[in-house]
C-alpha cells in the first residue's frame, strides 16, 4: 500500500519525492547527531609529550608528580631513563576525530550508505529511472575513497600499489569481469591491515602488556569476522550455497560482522604504535625513542584514514547487495520508453552480486594469508 493511500494529500506528490525526502532526513539526522563518530566513540588513542627546552613553550601534559624545570639553565639535567618515557591515553570523541585529517572521508563513508540504502530497501519502489541507481552513490564514493587510500596516499606507498595491482589482475582473470576485479582488488590493503589488527588483538605476540589486551567481545568479533568470511568464500567456491537469495544473506552477515569488528580493529591499529614504542624502548640499553615517538604520532595523526580502510570494504559489500536488491524489483518493466533498460538492469544486478562475492573472497584470502605469514614468522609487527 502506498503512503499516499494512508495519508491523502491535497496535492499530488511525485513517487520519487518520498525517497529523496527520507534520504535527506536520514542524512541530516545522522550528521547533526554525529552518528558516524559513534563507531569510534571512547576508543583509546595515545600521545607522546614532546621534550621541549626550558626556553621554549612548556608541555601542557606532564607525568603525574613531575615538577616543571627549574630556572637554572646552567645545571645539567638528569640522563634519560625508562621511567621518564610515558604515554598519555585519551578517549576519542567527535571533536577529537574532527580534528584529524581525512575525517570528512570517514564521515561520508558511513553517512552515505546510512542515508541512501534504507529508503531504497524499505520504501515502495517508485517508477523513476533514478531510483534503481541510488546505491551507486555510496558505491562510487567508497570505491574512490579506497582508491585514494591505495594510490594517492601521501607519501606514496609502492608496495601497497603493487599488491593492489596484483590483486586486480588475479581477481579480473579469475572472475572474468573487469568491474568485479577492480572493486575486489581494493579490499587487499584493508584486509592486510585487518590481519595485523587481528594478530595484535588476539594477543598472538604474547607480550603480556595490559594495554594490548582486548575484551572478550572484541576478540569474539575479530574471530567471527575472519571465520565467517572464510567459510562463506569456501561455500561459494564449492557451490554449496543454493540460490542467490541465500548467498545475499550470507554476504550481508559477513559484511555486518566485518563492520562490527572494525571498531576493535581501529583500537588495535592504535595499540600497534604502543607495541612498537615499547619494543624500541626496551630492546637495547640505550632506548630508541625517536622511532616510537614517530610511530605513535603517525598512527594518531592518520587515525581516520585507517578507520576508512576498515569500514569501506563491508560498506562496499552492503552497497553492492543493495544494488542487487533494487535492480531485482524490475523497475523498468512497463515503464513507457524505458523497456530497453530491463536487460541492462539484469546485467547490473548480476555484476553487483559477483563484485560483492569477490570483495569478500579477496578480503578473506588476503587476511588468512597474512595471518599465516605472521604465524610462520615470515612477517613481523615492527
From TrEMBL:
Main location class: membrane
Q: Name one GO cellular component term.
A: membrane
Q: List membrane-spanning regions.
A: 20-43, 129-147, 159-180, 303-326, 351-374
Biological classification of the source: Eukaryota, Viridiplantae, Streptophyta, Embryophyta, Tracheophyta
Q: How does it sit in the membrane?
A: Multi-pass membrane protein
Which residues lie within the region annotated Disordered? Answer: 57-82
- Which keywords, in A-to-Z order, does the entry hold? Glycoprotein, Membrane, Transmembrane, Transmembrane helix
Under the heading PANTHER family, the entry gives: EMEI, RE42071P
From the Swiss-Prot or TrEMBL record, state where the protein is found.
Membrane
Where does the source fall among the domains of life? Eukaryota
Q: Which family, according to UniProt?
A: Belongs to the TMEM161 family.
Has keyword Metal-binding? no
- Please report the name of this protein according to its UniProt entry: Uncharacterized protein
